[in-house]
Amino acid sequence: MRKKIGVLALQGAVSEHIDQIKKLGGNAIEVKIPEDLSTIHGLIIPGGESTAISRLIQEIYLYDPIREFAKNHPVFGTCAGLILCGSSITDGGKKLKSLHLIDIAVTRNGFGRQIDSFEVDLDIKNIGKNIPSVFIRAPYIASVGKDVNVLAEFDKKIVMAEQGNILVCSFHPELTNDDHVMRYFMNKISV
Ligand code: GLN
Question: Is 55 touching ligand 1 by the criterion CB < 6 Å?
Fold first, then answer.
């Protein structure tokens, strides 16, 4: 059976994820209502504006269904999606209701205004060396719980981690032609 991955499509960078999944032979759909979750094997929460996505998740009653889905399916949060998957926010977003899927504390817009966006080559544990990574007003992971596996750091800040089914990164893997990160996520999915 083909792996079917949903991309939460409330706000943010959706179509690039869908294109990359399809290039890798997967099936991809936009997730807009709770019922969509019952048809997929894995979920991506994309980059965008975490406060807006968080508000919409609650407005359309996706908060509990996503948490339920994450108990036994892989979920990948990129950039704003990382903020939403986290368990606490150290600053700049205390009003945001995150999903508490992974035991990390997050600092929003953590790389400072002067470098709003940049691209670097990252060495990512389990994935590979020199992976091009695009950061856009990116958060970083300020601290991790004991069950969290740190996968990458940049500038002494944690930018990628996983805990069981849940994978998060500060950057936008879907905005480059390098598909190592998406491949890694898709390998977490068994159908
Ligand atoms: N700065 C955004 C936020 O805090 C995240 C940016 C992004 O997803 N590229 O929600």
Answer: no
Give me the residue spans of the domains in the chain.
4-187
The closest residue, in CA terms, to atom 1 on ligand 1 is 137
| pTM of the predicted structure, to 2 decimals | 0.96
Superfamily of domain covering 4-187: Class I glutamine amidotransferase (GATase) domain (3.40.50.880)
Amino acid at 156: K
94: nearest Cα among 106, 81, 78: 106
Instruction: Report the separation in Å between the CA atom of 78 and the middle of ligand 1, taken as the mean of its atom positions.
Output: 9
> Residue 113's Cα: distance from chain center in Å?
22
| CB distance 14 to ligand 1 below 6 Å | no
pLDDT in tens, 44-99: 999 999 999 999 999 999 999 999 999 999 999 999 999 999 999 987 656 789 99
